[in-house]
Amino acid sequence: MNICKPTMDMPYSPRGEFLRAREELDRHPNLTYSLIRNGYFMDYLGMPYVESYLHPLYNILDLAACKAVIPGDGDVPVVWTHTQDVAKFVAALTDMPTKQWPREAAIVGERITLNSLVDLAAQVTVLNGTTFEIVHDPVVSVKHKRITKLPSNRPCYAYFSRGKEDLDEIISTQMVGMAAGVFDIK
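The structure corresponding to this sequence follows.
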């Protein structure tokens, strides 16, 4: 994700902390570090069928319910990277001499538009004889946390202190970012 995008494109509440941390790192030019951007975790696309250490959370695709919710027109690419690939990249980076570490690195697993992604998911589920529901939520609605719910998120409410309200905030923020190109890293 590109945390340097304008706040209106990425209304992610911890964003300010990330930006302050980056400013602090920049004040220490002799400190060795590498900022790593990896897009959106691909693990979330295959839940509940993919092995992952992440808690289930359904954004864009709900394969079990054969439903997808796309923010905006769905034509903006999103980069998806599996957590195992992120771990391999970080491990390989730490094996390198620190003088070779880049200040910034991007891990790009798969770049695909949301429409193309959902079309692929729909094709797979149709093979099983199931219809796939696709909904486009207007970005204006998503910015106001008015999002179409994915059924498999109901059990996820328990992960958050304010339940559905917290989850809606997280998902709507991510959807706004996807529609604005925040997850189209290069």
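The first strand starts at residue 35 and ends at 37.
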